């Protein structure tokens, strides 16, 4: 299982803790420290569309209208912390965020 998130993101930490407690082996990618490959950004954008960009973030609010209107993949490559997180991948399953439905799905698979 691979997770893309931020080490200091409460949601990412909550997901990591729950998944590890459920017995998942995790390969963690810190989007700020490690970056995100463009190919991964393209896959994520194809799967989640506009939802991949966290429009509630401080980084988003600091962007100009021209930057916001640009290519989302280029924007995420330049500002990886704009990506909603965590993105969780295991095999052919890919999820975005850590809500009740997502956590129930991943934790049920660990049992």
List the helices and strands and how they pair.
Layout: E1 2-5, H1 10-21, E2 27-30, H2 38-48, H3 58-61, H4 65-69, H5 72-78, E3 87-90, E4 93-96, H6 100-110
Parallel strand pairs: 1-2
Antiparallel strand pairs: 1-3, 3-4
Shape: elongated
What is the CA-CA span between the terminal residues? 15 Å
User: What is the rounded Rg?
Assistant: 14 Å
The assigned structural class equals alpha+beta
Please state the average pLDDT score. 94
If helices are DSSP runs of H or I spanning 4 or more residues, what is the number of helices?
Answer: 6
Residue share in helices? 40-55%
Order the strands across the largest sheet as they lie in space: 2-1-3-4
Which features would summarize this protein structure in a list?
111 residues, alpha+beta, 6 helices, 45% helix, elongated
